[in-house]
Amino acid sequence: MITDDLLLRYARPGPRYTSYPTVPAWTEDPPDPWLHEGLAQLDGAVSVYVHIPFCKEQCSFCGCNMVVSGLQRVGDRYLDVLQKQLETLPLPGRRLPAVRLHLGGGTPTWLSPAQLRRLFSLIRARFLVLPGAEVGVEVDPDVTTDEHLHVLAELGVTRISLGVQSLDPDVLARVRRPQQGRRVAELLDLARSFDMSGLNLDLMYGLPGQSPARFARTLDEVVAMGPDRIALFGYAHVPWLKPHQRSLGEGELPTPLQRAQLYRLAQRRLAGAGYRPIGLDHFARVDDALAMGANDGTLRRDFMGYTDRPAAPLIGLGMSAISELPDRFLQQRSKLGSWYKAIERGLPQLERGRMLTADDKLRAFVIERIMCTLKLSFDEVEQRFGLKMQDHFRSELDRLAPLERDGLVLRTEAGLQVPEDARILVRRVAQVFDAYLGGSSEGLRFSQAV
Q1: Domain check: are 377 and 292 in the same one?
Q2: DSSP string of 257-268, one letter each residue
Q3: CB-based burial label for 179 (10 Å; 0-12, 13-18, 19+)
Q4: CA atoms lying within 13 Å on the CB side of residue 101
Q5: d(CA 342, CA 345)
Q6: Which of 315, 349, 366 is the last residue of a domain?
Q7: Residue 365 to residue 394: CA distance in whole angstroms
């Protein structure tokens, strides 16, 4: 039984990998041949991520790499530079097959419908989007028009993810996010009319002014809209990394215990409404592909989030985008001006990179299995990597002992299992296998684990 005392004890500081299977130490300013060599080795289908950094305004909770702009011509220049990046991308073949395409941000629908048409044309000039591919776009309900959605449907988009965060007027006012629940529902209905599936709403807990009663009302409103998926993220208050978050005073935010109570409230409400918990922070209807992937053990997590699709190398395009190739992680320049300069002048476009060792790949697999399925089969690891779990991870398994005593994980001769009531703390179990933390986050500053 995970008590409130245990939640408080494990709530902070949080593990460093809030989004990725594992985060090795990066190399700053890696040479561009790392990208060229990695792409040249590709053989088969890939996933493609395109980062569109622009937003109409900045919400005070935002932790994304984004740029505020109200000038549409800024989007034209971005597409010009993206076109040059795509044209010079050293792919093995003119058009590489893609099984997954995702536009993230920022706000991809900040682009006009005409700019979206041009963007898809640029992408399809270098990638062959295969039949049955998942084509997803992140959407801000406040800036997305019906015409946007009509155009996205014509372009072959199969799912959208709406950044909602909250439907409480007081909370929305405090975080400077204009939004109407009615518009969210309208976009969902319109997307369904185009036969889009896997429709997702992003929600956030831990925002200023959120009480259990207020949050329960938001959850009820969301459930009534009937999305296929709900992503429930904890607000990460990191003003030392995101200075604009200083406008949210510490005293306005829920305490770690209150955050945990909000999360548990959401778990109960969503389970009662027929949503299955997925990994750490997602929920899906039982007939959704993510829920079925969780049931049959095919659920995965990569830089784009949870997916039921088979593993495929990920090519990241645009400012700050990350590529996840079989033996390396590579990130584009994360400042718009430096990314422009790099692509336009033929300068190094990579900001950070990591060549993955065999141990990195092993640990990424272990962490991903724990984060996606809440369990780890020792036999599966041993057969896949040709090692003895008890020997290779002896010190890590020893460090699990306090977590076992506290009920965060159950250990048997066959493997590990995180109990359902400890799902909220699954990162604490996965953290033990992160070689770059040494099993501890002591002295490091990250967001809260809960």
Answers
A1: no
A2: HHHHHHHHHHHH
A3: buried
A4: 23
A5: 6
A6: 315
A7: 17
Residue 19: partners with Cβ closer than 8 Å, 6 or more residues away: 303, 305
Please tell me whether residue 300 adopts helix, strand or coil conformation.
Answer: strand
**pLDDT tens, 366-395?**
999 999 999 999 999 999 999 999 999 999
Secondary structure tally for the chain: helices H, strands E: 17, 20
- What CATH number is attached to the domain comprising 103? 3.20.20.70
Helix (H, G, I), strand (E, B) or coil at 361: helix
190 CB neighbour count, 10 Å cutoff:
17
Question: Which residue's entry shows tokens 């991520």?
Answer: 49
What secondary structure letter does DSSP report for 422? G
Residue with tokens 């159950």: 410
Break the chain down into helix, strand, coil percent, rounded to 5.
Answer: 40, 20, 40
Q: What is the DSSP string of 97-114?
A: EEEEEEEEES-GGGS-HH
> pLDDT value at position 14?
47
Query: What are the DSSP calls for 42-84, one per residue?
Result: --S-EEEEEEE-EESS--TT--S--EE---HHHHHHHHHHHHH
* pLDDT surpassing 60 at residue 447: no
Q: How many folded domains does the chain comprise?
A: 2
22-70 pLDDT, tens digit each: 556 788 888 889 999 999 999 899 999 999 999 988 887 888 888 889 8
Q: What does the pLDDT look like over 133-171, one tens digit per residue?
A: 999 999 999 999 999 999 999 999 999 999 999 999 999
Q: Where does residue 364 rank: exposed (0-12), middle (13-18), buried (19+ CB within 10 A)?
A: buried
Q: Which domain holds residue 60?
A: 25-315
